[in-house]
Amino acid sequence: MSHNKSEISEQTVLMIAVRDNQDREAFGALFDHFAPRLKGFIMRTGCSAPQAEEIVQDVMLTVWRKASMFDPHRAQVSAWIYQIARNRHIDIVRKESRPVPEELAEDPGAEPDASQILAVEQEAGKLKAALSSLRPEQRDMIEKAYLGELTHQEISDQTGLPLGTIKSRIRLGLERLRHELKGLRE
């Protein structure tokens, strides 16, 4: 995969902002870029989605905590983050005393291939499009419940809406989303 310089420098710039200024916005952008890629990379080694998500959270937390150790002259951001992910995953595998999957033992060239990245990005794009097709009040509830990770009670406290209304909006919204996304899975 040929790396275009601007992509690398953008992530490097973000990582340096995290390292030097504890820049939360830059970290958010790094997280959005790497989380889906890391999750795919980890799941290809036979991890379940929930376990992969846990590892990704852990890896990104480590990236935040160890940002001071990042040296752009020694490694690209992606290589550095994938190394953390591999080490973390190997630790977990050893703890569970399973054999280390081959994909982890070898260096995967640090980046998942373009087709996987594209698939994730297309899926995210379709999800955004499907979300935008919902009525605003349904979309708002779904985003609060799933993207903001609020409980129904917290949404009720925040919006002043009764629980029943919130639940039915989420249910209706999810049914529409499911319908919109049916084509995505086929």
TrEMBL record:
Residues 30-98 form the RNA polymerase sigma-70 region domain. Pfam families: Sigma70_r2, Sigma70_r4_2. Belongs to the sigma-70 factor family. ECF subfamily. The keyword 4Fe-4S does not apply. This is RNA polymerase sigma factor. PANTHER family: RNA POLYMERASE ECF-TYPE SIGMA FACTO (PTHR43133), RNA POLYMERASE SIGMA FACTOR SIGZ (PTHR43133:SF62). PROSITE patterns: SIGMA70_ECF. Residues 126-177 form the RNA polymerase sigma factor 70 region 4 type domain. CDD domains: Sigma70_r4.
